Amino acid sequence: MKCAEAGNMSNGRFSHLLKGVWLLWLWQVVFVAGTGGKLWEVPTTSFTSSSNHSESMQWEHECQYRHLQDRVKITADIPPRLDGTWVSTRCEVRPGPEFLTRSYTFQPSRHFQALQHYYTDSSCADPAYSLMIRGRLRLRQASWITRGATEAEHHISKVGIVVHSPVAKQRLASRLPQACVGPTLSRVLPGKLFEMYNTRAGRGCLAALGFSMLEMELIRVETQHHSHGGKVQELFLGDIHTDWTQRTLHRPTGYQQPLQNAMHHIHPCPVCALVYRSSEQRPPGLPRSPAAQLSLSGRWVSQGCETRPNILFLTRDFTFNPDQHAWEGVYRHFSDPICTKPTFTLRALGHYAQGNPSVKISGATEFVFKVTQVLVTAEEESTAKLLNGTRPGKCGPVGGWEVGVEQDLNPTAGCNLLGIKLPHKEYELFKTELDHRKHPLLFIGERPTDGSSPDRPQRRPTSFQAPMVVCGGEETHPSHRYGFNSKQVQSAASGTGRLAQLVLLVLGCMLFSWLCCF
């Protein structure tokens, strides 16, 4: 479903993608060299490592259950401040699927200890095994690829495993190669820490588990300042590749579900307390929550500015009509990580059919979505010029693209430049839960990292994107206000800024089949 995406990315298009990424990187290197770039400079901003850069955003939801006092100001510091312990706020689902909770502690010395607890069920109630990872982190520079993020290097010194039951040990043995089962698992006793890796040992058995800490190589910390005086801090780490075979090689450009600071988290958060008090020998068993009845009726919106792998920033706004099995999705795309600079808006319409309960993730439901119509609005002049440069009959009206004017892609059966083909079918996975305020959340299947489309049942997602919230009232999408001061952001020269936007736009269009959407 997710939008009117094309099918699989061709080898030729993927080659263009790599060239686009290289071009972006080259431009950024030239830009920094030309401005006497500091380590922590990012495109179109200027700041030094001794004076943190801070993004400021006001995000307001026009949802019925939110009151005006719930308006939140969000700031993000670069470089990020990591000291302390960061914990999961719910049972997390990784591609596979894998079910886990995390507790990461960072010291001022940049040494870290990461606890990962893995479970047999999607409620994280039945622990299977826990990993205790120790290492060191070095922050490098502001990311050139994912704006607003910080690149880092990590070094792992030790990895220990604790298996929590004989049954879990047997299941683990079935996943490991024989070379690991004999010398390694034979010495593992339930409830006892066994060192699987140190600086003198190889990582072969860890790789067989799909273990990787490459998530540490892309970092962002956001602080939510609430009107009542409280604050919530979230730690965003790099995304996990949806293809198991690529997990240990993937260099993240997006984020996974954030962790929250153990001292500054949402309230109430019973999961936070359980995870914070856990250890490798005492994993948190989360309470089994009753399954929330899946009801798509109404409007659902993003909770904030969302980041996708490969430089994509967007918000989502969906409407579902169960009586007619119809849906409409609005995807607003931006060139910056706080969603202030719109590039284009995509509106997709179609129908859906609800399928069977998922056999892989309890409480989730399978769907099939069909996209029958796509309309695109260019939100800036460079976007309109690029679309007007396409061949006749390949992307909407020839020469008819104007800023702020919506164009229908159906007459041309999509848009080659944007990677859209119509009609289009996708196999989806949905799940609903209740948040800490007992309000419904909608989880929609995660997009494949490699840009392919889930256009057949075996490609159906096994993990989820950031949850969406249900809305009502006259307003149908979240509004946002942003405030900056001279100490926070200094704009680069306008000519250079426009060049950066054009380069990002071209690259974004190459990546559009990645996008999008759900």
Automatic annotation (TrEMBL):
Record protein name field: Adenomatosis polyposis coli down-regulated 1-like
Compartments reported by the entry: Membrane
Protein topology in the membrane: Single-pass membrane protein
GO cellular component: plasma membrane
UniProt GO molecular function: Wnt-protein binding
Primary location class: membrane
Biological source species: Labrus bergylta (ballan wrasse)
One of the GO biological process terms: negative regulation of Wnt signaling pathway
Region (Disordered): 445-464
Positions of the APCDD1 domain: 62-288, 289-483
InterPro entries: APCDD1 (IPR042425), APCDD1_dom (IPR029405)
Pfam families xref list: APCDDC
Keywords: Glycoprotein, Membrane, Signal, Transmembrane
